[in-house]
Amino acid sequence: MSAGVGPGPALPVPDGLVEAFWAYERALMADDVATLDALFAPASTTLRGDAEGLLVGHDRISAFRSGRGGAPRRRILQTHVQVTDPDHALVVAVTELERGGRGQQTQLWARFADGWKVTAAHVSVPAPALDRRIWRVVGDPLVAGVAAGPLTGESVAVKDLFAVAGQVIGAGNPVWEREAPVERGDAAVVAALVEAGADVRGIARTDEFAYSLAGVNAHTGTPPNPAAPHRLGGGSSSGSAAAVALGHATIGLGTDTGGSIRVPAAYQGLYGIRTTHDVLDRHGMLALAPTFDAVGWLTRSADLLALVGEVLLPAAEVRSRDLVVVPELLRLADTDVASALDRWVADRGLVVRETWPLHDLDRWREAFTTWQAWEAWQVRGAWISAALEAHGPDVLSADVRGRFETARAVTMAQAHAAYDVVVEARARIRELIGGRVLVLPSAPTVAPPLGPGLDARLQDTRLATTRLTCLAGLGGLPAVSIPVRTAAGLPAGVCLVAEPGADLDLLRLAQTLA
Amino acid sequence: MSAGVGPGPALPVPDGLVEAFWAYERALMADDVATLDALFAPASTTLRGDAEGLLVGHDRISAFRSGRGGAPRRRILQTHVQVTDPDHALVVAVTELERGGRGQQTQLWARFADGWKVTAAHVSVPAPALDRRIWRVVGDPLVAGVAAGPLTGESVAVKDLFAVAGQVIGAGNPVWEREAPVERGDAAVVAALVEAGADVRGIARTDEFAYSLAGVNAHTGTPPNPAAPHRLGGGSSSGSAAAVALGHATIGLGTDTGGSIRVPAAYQGLYGIRTTHDVLDRHGMLALAPTFDAVGWLTRSADLLALVGEVLLPAAEVRSRDLVVVPELLRLADTDVASALDRWVADRGLVVRETWPLHDLDRWREAFTTWQAWEAWQVRGAWISAALEAHGPDVLSADVRGRFETARAVTMAQAHAAYDVVVEARARIRELIGGRVLVLPSAPTVAPPLGPGLDARLQDTRLATTRLTCLAGLGGLPAVSIPVRTAAGLPAGVCLVAEPGADLDLLRLAQTLA
User: Fold this and answer.
1) Dihedral sign for Cα atoms in the order B414, B417, B423, B426
2) Inter-chain CB proximity B129 and A243 less than 8 Å
């Protein structure tokens, strides 16, 4: 170890520091959480950062340690000590990981009554070949844009529900992926993007069969939320969203049946569009519930969101529309999200407030969920049954399995009754919106924090979310999500919904309002 | 900004610190190298680390800055200050990159007579979707092992010279890659690895057409050397080697014509084998110089190196062989490498020293180079000529272009004369080694440091390297590289060379000696 920092003479390495450093290292390799906790300063200002984000406060750091199941095996190759005074020193260590590559650990140590403790740590390890939580396959590029076009220079993260020639459709499930045939052509929208000059960066993870809004996958891990570290990223277009938020791709191609574009857009501070039902060719896209399934995409700018729309959507004259806010819908969101939307609306001063007769909303949501389940079972039930039979329950993530089990139990009578409500709701929602733009929260909450209790909370979150997102799903309507921030600085989404075919109007509006 | 560290009362943020922090940030965004240099403490102990490794000393940090052409655009999202005493403080900043994602910067600041300066910095930014210096395409996996077998659980980085079904062979050149047909089947050795249960992780970069030993590619960047940061990784199996060293894959499949496995093995502290010429089926492998081309692979352990050999190579009874060191060959290496090999040999006490009549060595090397060039032009000249014509000189990296230009100038008479020497050398080398194992340096130098003057030094390095590596090439002999360390701790390689077909003997020997 060497020592020395600043303009004065080098100070000796203080007693006990080296021992504390090695005690920490031994405890880390033994995953001795109690010792690690004791060696981190017991303060709300203690820091620990890595590629997943910065944790502030001893308690959050301790909770992180308890959940992670140990650090990767490593050895210390070099240490450099900078002693600032007899009670404080920085220790920089170069690590060599057993699995390969080198990392760096920077720790500030302070002397407490009961010994040396870390007050701040910054840890780096080599990135994996690909982040398998986000991607199934990536290339430089995976598919090159065919010619110069409006999307030259852009790169697409293709949700693993769309065909890419030479690849299988994995649908977020390893058994499905293993059995899937190699696709001989691109899905219609993938082909259109490549024709317009965009590269395909890779195939991005999805919640299994897109039947979730959480952004969780038990097989390949929960993709990170780059805009809100240590929180869920939302789904089911989870990999496409994380890829765009991280700058791995500029366009995240996805699907939206009940919110699978709008929810990750809101959670991750992205722009997103769910297109009008049936306006885009779904050829080569794996269905979840064909009555509601829609193509969508995510970007980091309103301009690129619109540009993709100009490439994919039928040309139409753009018209301007009045905006309307419905307070009852705002009240379905958490206060922080509702306030953010209120502020956004007030800043623009454009909006008509209107009270709608929404006593049927829960009946509509339930009909949406039931008919979605019925259709999901029609298209995927046979495979799900066979896979559960052959491989046992772990073939599916627990939440998705639960949803398919509910779907299996839907009777034809229930389905038909639900469909009648769907038709009624569709007409009513279209009538209420008319030629205007409904402004509502893209999701009722900010991204839920990871950690204990998450699974239990997800059920409630899903219910509350679907109550808002089902409107565009039921109506077959286009919806654009615009990022806003809550007072606490967390991402949320403002959703603009309009009549069928108004996709380009919404995209233009988002550009104006952004 | 908050402040506070350790058990005592929180100290106020000292005067001038915040201003210095922001001055640094402005200078970074302006790539104002002079200001950045002035804001880093002028000491040999000043530290700066990122994913590429730790730089120690103000001068090395300054040289790095001058060469990198600016930092990625970012903004500061959060700062946390820990003041250890009135003259020292840690500043941890969360950054948001314009291209997406978040990073962290940890800096220790000290007050000097002329203001605050950074004494240590640790910088993290989000990893890209894939490291395009190492990979062209990666998957989780890209190709799954077909069934349980001896290589189940292993993953292969396939050098971009081998066919993988559904992919093109890119050969390290973007124009070639664009024009290449999609392969309908796997190369023979790729198929054999997948049959044995290994997954293909992806397709790894190569120096263009494998016609280099440097590990440089002007189109996709110089792959990192994870075992010797800020140094060349060696090539041409450069991506395969870096992938294995980083733990992205466990097996790096490559080729070795004149050292393309042995050199990166030596530079990166890996095990590597160049197999006997023609012992493995080269079907689906792009040729460089068929007289010398051999399949090879790299691993992080002698056991896995041998296990792959057992899968790929014809079964043979393993026999033990005497080892022989030739001092003249050792003298062709730099002192640090020769000493490391001497120490390795002495530690094992097994080796016969023998003087060989090597006055012809330079004539042999020249014949090797000339015949390699002739063949390279026969197999690739037409394409190279057309590509230079159509796209101009930048279609090839300068060093590879220079080599092909030399190759084009080789006359048939020169080639035939060279071939006669090749035949003579082959017989002589085989005779000298006989049934024994020749022990020599895998490369005569440690990995050359990156930075100014590298291009000029590379030509000399290549000449010195080929003088050693051409022996196995000329002889068509198997060669195994075993990692050693120089006194300074840098990776180097001990190369074991034996008669044709002795591959398994060498692999077993490497296991014993490792």
Assistant:
1) negative
2) yes
Q: Is residue A25 classed as helix, strand or coil in its secondary structure?
A: helix
Place of tokens 């209107």: A354
Name the stretches of chain B with pLDDT < 70: 1-4
Query: Residue holding tokens 């102990």?
Result: B45
CA dist A442 → A260, A261, B240, B472, B483 (Å): 11, 9, 45, 66, 56
8 Å CB contact between A168 and A175: no
Cα–Cα separations (whole angstroms), residue A454 to A203, A232, A449, B128, B139: 27, 9, 7, 29, 29
Contact between B112 and A6 using a beta-carbon 8 Å cutoff: yes
Q: Which contiguous run of DSSP H or E holds residue B262?
A: helix B262-268
Contacts of B7 in chain A (CB under 8 A): 110-113
- Which one, of B57, B72, B63, B80, lies nearest residue B123 by Cα? B72
* Cα A108 from Cα A127, distance rounded (Å): 24
Give the pLDDT score at B66. 87
Dist CA B166 CA B147 (whole Å): 20
Which residue has tokens 């056991």?
Answer: B303
In the chain, the amino acid numbered A139 is G
Q: What is the pLDDT of residues A368-386, one digit of tens each?
A: 999 999 999 999 999 999 9
Contact A246 B5 (CB under 8 A): no
- Residues with Cβ within 8 Å of A498's Cβ and at least 6 positions away in sequence, in order, are A321, A433, A436, A437, A438, A477, A478, A505, A506
The one-letter amino acid code at A105 reads: Q
Helix (H, G, I), strand (E, B) or coil at A19: helix
Distance linking the first and last C-alpha atoms of chain B? 53
Closest listed residue to residue B171, CA positions, set B214, B203, B202, B143: B203
Place of tokens 């293709």: A158
Q: Which helix (H) or strand (E) holds B293?
A: none
DSSP state of A397: -
The pTM (predicted TM-score) of the whole model is: 0.96
Of the candidates B43, B54, B113, the beta carbon closest to that of A94 is on B54
Question: Left if phi > 0, otherwise alpha if psi is -120 to 50, otherwise beta: which for B26?
Answer: alpha
Alpha-carbon span A479 to A305, nearest angstrom: 12
Q: Is the pLDDT of residue A367 over 90?
A: yes
Question: Residues A448-494: pLDDT tens digits?
Answer: 999 888 888 898 999 999 999 999 999 999 999 999 999 999 999 99
Q: Do A47 and B80 touch (CB under 8 A)?
A: yes
A359-374 in b/e form (b: 16+ CB < 10 A) is: eebeebbebbbbbbbb
> What CA–CA distance (Å, rounded) separates A19 from A82?
16
pLDDT of res. B505? 98
A107's enclosing H/E stretch is strand A102-112
User: Out of A112, A119, A248, whose CB is closest to B129?
Assistant: A248
Question: CA A242, CA A224: separation in Å to the nearest integer?
Answer: 7
Distance from CA of A369 to the nearest CA of B (A): 33
- B79, β-bridge pairs: B93
Of A90, A102, A246, the CB nearest to B108: A90
Q: Between chain A and chain B, how many beta carbons pairs sit less than 8 Å apart? A: 237
Range A32-41 contact pairs with CB under 8 angstroms and sequence separation of 24 or more:
A33/A62, A33/A65, A33/A66, A36/A65, A37/A62, A37/A65, A38/A117, A39/A116, A39/A117, A39/A118, A40/A117, A40/A118, A40/A121, A41/A110, A41/A112, A41/A117, A41/A118, A41/A119, A41/B5, A41/B6
- Domains of chain A listed by start with CATH number: 17-124 (3.10.450.50), 135-312 (3.90.1300.10), 323-513 (3.90.1300.10)
What is the widest separation between alpha-carbon atoms in chain A?
85
For residue B53, what are its two tokens? 């490794």
In the DSSP assignment, the letter for residue B76 is: E
Q: Which residue of B has its CA nearest to A119?
A: B5
